[in-house]
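Hey,
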Amino acid sequence: MKNKCWIIGVIVIVLVVIFGVYYLNRTIWISNSESKSLIVGGDKDKGGCLVGAGYSWCESKQKCLRVWEELCEESFCLRENVANVYDCGKFVRVDSSLLGGGASYYSENMSEFSCPVVGPDYISQECKDIQGLNCKQINC
């Protein structure tokens, strides 16, 4: 009698394991096939750039780019308190519309430094050097 109960118990456990493995395998297979057909980030802007991937159209460079990786001068026009934006070659100059706001300069790797409005004796050498650059205004 004990042998009979033991054998039935083993058979039940084996069947539970077999059905569990089958169900788990089937569930994984179904979820994998569904994820392959799902396209993420398919939205595009007016320039054809993938918005979901962080790209936007840069008119001045005529290409899609990520503004935190590469400068796009006109993206600075959309910021608050901006009076004018200038292309200074390796830098973009953004003049503040706030009284005494001065200018901020952004390099190609998006590092920023500011040149406040101060007397000529107090201007840093970095600001003196960059203020001498030939810059052209960007139409915002």
